[in-house]
Design a protein that fits this description.
about 350 residues, alpha/beta, Rossmann fold, five-stranded parallel sheet, four-stranded parallel sheet, about 45% helix, isomerase, Bifunctional glucose-6-phosphate/mannose-6-phosphate isomerase, Glu6P/Mann6P_isomerase_C, carbohydrate derivative binding, SIS_dom
């Protein structure tokens, strides 16, 4: 696999939303019932859709949305739970284990997958399978992995305006792609500039808990997987109660840290003030502080605009280091060892 493969994946993200908007779910009537909770179970790139759903549902859903990244499921899962089991490959062992436990607990299960064992199991058990296009790296398929989850909750009446928000997200990403794709020179390309500043430094991404927390996590994970480099993240206001104090010693290490702050117009006014003050506190101690502003009207458009810039930044950082961003050989090795 070449670096161009990841470039092509990134270029195709806006179209994933359009493609999913054409999808007909046709949920069986047995799923249209009252639920007490929603559990999204997945790992890695397959779990990011659940994280986005949790954030998106925060201000709308009357019941909690919980993301599970484990072999086991919480004890509260039962007949009044909706479990969305997500695995792009369909062979993620933790998700398969969680699926089997949810089935034994009598939960209502819908599988979102590109195939594999998970889809086969679900069909054998009579559970609904939403099959999404396969062939990408899971981390490059966030449109495919998120959209069905949100559309399911819209059809169940737990979320509203999803289709409209997804359409706006696709438009915002298509416009943004024209500004940050590889054909755009460094001086005009914010993602290239961010990668250039990150090279040789330790990126720390700061978001806000209600809006850009998951985006900050995504930046960290994409830098790890694409650029094969360390990266860390935290969120306001929590980081003001601990992490902010950790910029005093050792000075030589702190001076190698690059802070990237993700800004969202919807951030709480007190959070906005916290960001400004925190920047004043650390700016002279770290290598640099950079900010990225979300775009769009809806939560989803703003969220994905931050994610898309981060995805491209991680791709350009890989190129800065002369690394192929597409393969994840360490993860492949780990899976092979576990399968022995």
């Amino acid at each position: 696999m070449t670096a161009e493969k990841m470039r092509d994946y990134l270029q195709g993200l806006p179209e994933q939303f359009n493609e999913m908007l054409q999808m007909k779910l046709n949920l069986p009537s047995r799923y249209k019932k009252e639920y007490q909770n929603i559990l999204v179970s997945g790992l890695g790139g397959s779990a990011i859709g659940g994280d986005i759903l949790r954030s998106y549902a925060f201000s709308q859903a009357a019941i909690p949305v919980i993301v599970n990244r484990d072999y086991d499921i919480p004890a509260f899962v039962g007949p009044q739970s909706l479990v969305l089991a997500v695995s792009y490959s369909g062979n993620t062992e933790e998700t398969l284990s969680a699926y089997r436990q949810a089935e034994r607990a009598g939960a209502n299960i819908i599988v979102v997958s590109g195939g594999g064992k998970l889809s086969s199991l679900a069909r054998e058990d009579g559970n609904m399978v939403v099959e999404i296009p396969a062939g990408l790296s899971p981390r490059a398929a966030t449109g495919y992995l998120f959209c069905p989850l949100a559309l399911i909750l819209e059809e169940l009446g737990l979320l509203s305006g999803v289709s409209k928000d997804l359409a706006e997200t696709s438009r915002v990403l298509a416009d943004l792609k024209e500004e940050i794709n590889p054909a755009v020179d460094y001086d005009q390309n914010i993602a290239r500039q961010l990668a250039g500043e990150m090279k040789g430094r330790i990126p720390v991404i700061w978001g806000s808990s209600a809006h850009s927390e998951v985006a900050a996590w995504r930046w960290k994970a994409q830098i790890n997987e694409n650029a094969k480099s360390p990266a860390y993240y935290n969120v306001f206001p929590e980081l003001n109660h601990n992490e902010l104090v950790g910029f005093e010693a050792p000075g030589d290490l702190i001076s190698q840290i690059l802070i990237v702050i993700l800004r969202d117009p919807g951030d709480h006014e007190r959070v906005k003030k916290r960001i400004d003050i925190s920047r004043q506190v650390i700016e002279s101690r770290v290598a640099k502080v950079m900010e990225v502003e979300a775009r769009g009207n809806s939560f989803l458009a703003r969220f994905y605009s931050l994610v898309y810039i981060g995805d491209y930044t991680s791709y350009y950082l890989a190129l800065e280091y002369g690394i192929n961003p597409t393969p994840v050989e360490v993860i492949d090795y780990l899976k092979a060892e576990l399968n022995k």
